[in-house]
Design brief:
alpha/beta, Carbamate kinase, two-stranded antiparallel sheet, 14 strands, binds adenosine-5'-diphosphate, binds N-acetyl-L-glutamyl 5-phosphate, ATP binding, cytoplasm, arginine biosynthesis
Length: 259
């Protein structure tokens, strides 16, 4: 039987709220078993970019990353946010180790190529080094991944954090029973973005496509859900989209992805 592995991703709105982040990290540190944390931080990167008079540009939830914005996201994700999260986990006696995809060559990516859109130094993941990551896990370390990867040719790439989480989950599902959870500031995927309680409890691919066509799902929720279906198809055992309370109460209302 495969060993269980929890992969949890937290987004920019949770990270940006000091109290919410602190509570989340306290709960996270109490989790048992094997755990990986993936964090975004898009909100902070946008704030810092604007201070530097750079104009942030997002297309379908992904950042168009020119050379200057790549410097900003590297400093914000792989530096400020990653190291703060690791320090807070260490404070809670969780032996965290902060990583970008370049560290230990854990995540190799290629420049994102999409017809008609030049995303600059944005990356799509090519491979995940399951062996190196499992060595860390089996030595009681908790990897904390940020949204920076590399192409093994000296180039760092900005990679959507939801994608980092789903690609890690997909790759690690070969040797672990993986539970993937996207934690964000809302209670789940909502039927009405203005109604916090309009949670859609189960979503399959056909349902998702209808919700997208109707404009009910938009912005950052698009890459999140697309990534979820990729992971489900790759053998990830369970995927949930929930708010921070889900960590301590698995019965709380939230969204579950189904095939
Ligand atoms: N139907 C929906 N339900 C919930 N959130 C939605 C929906 N459609 C769009 N969104 C937006 O998607 C955002 C989540 O994506 P994103 O900002 O990338 O979050 P994160 O940083 O946590 O990954 C929500 O804050 C919300 O504004
Ligand atoms: C290519 C790309 O879009 N990268 C993302 C990485 C950070 C991220 O995904 O942050 P959240 O999870 O907080 O949205 C970005 O720069 O916004």
């Amino acid at each position: 039987m495969k060993q269980k592995l929890n992969i949890i991703k937290i987004g920019g709105n949770v990270i940006d709220d000091e109290k919410s982040l602190s509570l989340f990290l306290t709960d996270y540190s109490k989790l048992e078993g094997l755990n990986i944390l993936v964090h975004g931080g898009g909100k902070k990167a946008t704030e810092v970019a604007k201070k530097l008079q750079l104009e942030p540009k997002m297309i379908e939830g992904r950042r168009v990353t020119d050379a200057s914005n790549l410097e900003v996201v590297t400093m914000v994700y792989a530096g400020l946010l990653n190291k703060n999260i690791v320090a807070k986990l260490q404070q809670n006696n969780c032996n965290a180790i902060g990583l970008s995809g370049a560290d230990g060559n854990t995540i190799k990516a290629n420049k994102r190529i999409v017809k008609d859109v030049d995303y600059g130094f944005a990356g799509d993941i090519e491979s995940v080094d399951v062996k190196t990551i499992s060595v860390l896990l089996e030595n009681n370390l908790t990897p904390v991944f940020c949204a920076i990867t590399h192409n093994k040719n000296g180039q760092l790439l900005n990679t959507n954090a939801d994608t980092v989480a789903s690609e890690l989950a997909s790759a690690l599902a070969k040797i672990y029973e993986v539970s993937l959870t996207y934690v964000f500031e809302k209670k789940g995927v909502l039927k009405n973005i203005n109604d916090e309680n309009s949670i859609i409890e189960n979503i399959n691919l056909a349902h998702y496509k209808n919700l997208k066509d109707d404009g009910i799902i938009a912005d950052g929720m698009l890459p999140k859900l697309e990534n979820c279906f990729v992971a489900l198809n790759n053998g990830v055992a369970e995927i949930h989209i929930a708010n921070t309370d889900f960590l301590t109460d698995k019965n709380i209302q939230h969204t579950r992805l189904i095939l």
